[in-house]
Design goal:
Organism: Rhododendron griersonianum
Distance between the termini: 32 Å
Family: Belongs to the DEAD box helicase family. DDX21/DDX50 subfamily.
Largest sheet: 7 strands, parallel
Number of strands: 18
Keywords: ATP-binding, Helicase, Hydrolase, Nucleotide-binding, Nucleus, RNA-binding
Shape: globular
Helix content: 40-55%
Bound molecules: adenosine-5'-triphosphate
Strand order of the largest sheet: 3-4-2-5-6-1-7
GO molecular function: ATP binding; hydrolase activity; RNA binding; RNA helicase activity
EC number: 3.6.4.13
Amino acid sequence: MPSLAVNEDKREKKKKKKIDSNAETLDFDSLSDKKSKKEKKIKKAKASESDSENLEKKKSKKKDKKRKAAEMEEDGSGTSSESSETVDLKAESGGNSVNKKKKKVKLAEADEAEVENPNAVSNFRISAPLREVLKSKGIEALFPIQAMTFDAVLDGSDLVGRARTGQGKTLAFVLPILESLTNGPAKAARKTGYGRVPSVLVLLPTRELAKQVSAEFEVYGGALGLTSCCLYGGAPYQSQEIKLRRGVDIVIGTPGRIKDHIERGNLDFSSLKFRVLDEADEMLRMGFVEDVELILGKVEDAGKVQTLLFSATLPDWVKQIATRFLKPHKKTVDLVGNEKMKASINVRHIIIPCSKSARSQLIPDIIRCYSSGGSTIIFTETKDSASELADLLPGARPLHGDIQQAQREVTLSGFRSGKFSTLVATNVAARGLDINDVQLIIQCEPPRDVEAYIHRSGRTGRAGNTGVAVMLCDPRRSNISKIERESGVKFEHLAAPQPSDLAKAAGSEAAETITQVSDGVIPIFKSAAEELLNTSGLSPVELLAKALAKTAGYTEIKSRSLLTSMENYVTVLLQAGRPIYTQSFAYGVLRRFLPEEKVEALVGLALTADGNGAVFDVPTEDLDTFLSGQENAAGVSLDVVKELPRLQQRDESRGGRFGSGGWGGGRFSGGSGGRGGFSDRRNDRFSGRGRGGGHRGNGKW
Ligand SMILES: Nc1ncnc2c1ncn2[C@@H]1O[C@H](COP(=O)(O)OP(=O)(O)OP(=O)(O)O)[C@@H](O)[C@H]1O
């Protein structure tokens, strides 16, 4: 297999990543305990060389994050006038444990960039323990959505917040809620002591997301002495009930399980101060509306509770529902608004045509080309396809709603920690999941709605990092134009990587690894090399090329068709000297000069966008029959295509004959042509589109 060298590389990267994250954890521990600065200095001085290396890495990571935060600001959100108001408010806030003197010292210590940055953490009413945690995570400035909502939330407003994926919406509610509970308006009425009832309720659509947000509350809330509890289905009730009985400040969970706990009399919202609906649109879309309404309805005096609603996508119907849950004078901070581009601007959005049957062959190559050695999440429409594909891809694991919760957790934590680098998931992983180093998203087919596209592709390119989202599809059947129009994404229509391109890349990597081999091996292998040179009949360069190929894992290079990406097929263009409006006309022309069984053997027939031709794939072994056969048909030409012409695309929403999009013509960088277009009347290779599983309602993923 061609991926050996790259896998080695990936393992090295993962190792490094783990060392880095360990360093962060250690640092956080030392910050959060109450040891004096002097002790810390001594500890630091004693730190081993590798520790200091880790610190160096961490510093540069922090600088990177700071730069990214500043860049994000420049994207146009945090206005300086607002920020200066924030600074004033902070100076006036008596409840804040940081006194003015300390603040001055801090500001003096802060580097220039921090002072100049209006979104610097020090410019907000964020108390010392939270600042310490933020610092330990390399966060020195708030992202725009956080900066623009912080005061409103801390000062008691209901709020609807919207920012693109990966822009830090979680901390946008975590930080002000925690400050409010410990230093702000919610402090006075907050229940404390054993058996206390929760002050905060956070609802999320999936278990994985609930756990992730709960972990944030544990880290940040823990620094302030607040406890949290995550309630989600598939996990035993008992441990959740024990926690609730002991008393918690923050409850995070999925609607179904929260409702169950209410019905069992385990939850009392009489002292609730905050309700958060994260990924609100998804929760409501999944059919949780009634559960959510029931849960929110359990708050007796809604006037005393602040309600916050966050998502990267807020369809109009959700905004309408929001008016039922939020107070009339709620604030709205919408950083996407009417901007055309609704998906992440840090992500390269690519479409590669591919038949269902070629997926498992093509995906490893896409990973090799686009994952930059990082992790990949592949989205399928159904649970079955996720399991099937995970079985076919080496080292991949599935994640979907039919997998036992305990296994789901093992899988996700293995993926997070880099134990394996390809996750094949349904929409259960589409929302909110923030996983370090996911560089590539592959969607096996276009999702049914634009929101799903936005959230899935948003699992990469987070917190100012970049990423790639590749969508595979059958242009004849997909509604790409609709997704393109509604998401504002301008897709790059590219060809699938050719095996020869991949082999070339692998060859360069292999050459690099060969230079790293010690000269000490030469005397041992020299006589075998001389023997080979003398007997092979090949030149030294040719022999070395073979050795490199073997090192890279190649013993042969297979061809792959431009149209369906299938191995051992070749793409042919048919022209009939007149327009070809229908597939049946194209088949009719072919039948005029080819035996029926050969016509039956072709796959993926699609009409060209100019209406003058049809392309299809033929088995390589049948190519000669096709090409020589045309001599018997006047006016007909058949040519092997080097670059795929633009193809007609189905445009469901507009119903035009020649859709606005079009396929092919694109080139994979360094590749040898575009491809696309499908139809297979013989065995309907594309019939398994698998919409059946759907994703509405509980447990469909
Ligand atoms: N101010 C900040 N500076 C640097 N990194 C940050 C900051 N705030 C959040 N992050 C990091 O950004 C990443 C994305 O944050 P988060 O998961 O909250 O995004 P999101 O907007 O909720 O995305 P999604 O819409 O996909 O749920 C996380 O890794 C988080 O730790």
